[in-house]
Amino acid sequence: MSDPTVDENVAKTRFLIISLTRVFGVFALMLGILVVLGKVDWPPIVGYVLLVVGVADFLIIPQFLTKKWRSNPE
């Protein structure tokens, strides 16, 4: 049987990674919206790329990581 402290540390680290991925996704999404609306002086294509990356980081990547890291029932 594995050490419960190590398992808990791994779980906390994985939770932190998933949470930071979502926060980065929201940040990228908001920045992309500002670029598309013309509030930030960057090319619009950068805004659209940020929108796609933000949606992926907020919705898709955390689900992928959760499925990948799911522990197997014994």
Short description:
The protein has helices at 4-36, 44-69. With 74 residues, the chain is mainly alpha-helical. The termini are close together.
Main attributes?
single chain, mainly alpha
The total count of strands amounts to: 0
> What form results from the Cα inertia axes?
elongated
Low-confidence stretches: none
Instruction: Estimate the helix proportion, in percent.
Output: over 70%
The helix/strand order is HH
For the record, give the distance between the C-alpha atoms at the N and C termini, rounded to a whole number.
12 Å
Radius of gyration, in Å, reads 17 Å
Descriptive notes:
Helices cover 80% and strands 0% of the residues. It has 74 residues and is mostly helical. It has a domain at 41-69. Helix 1 runs antiparallel to helix 2. The mean pLDDT is 92.
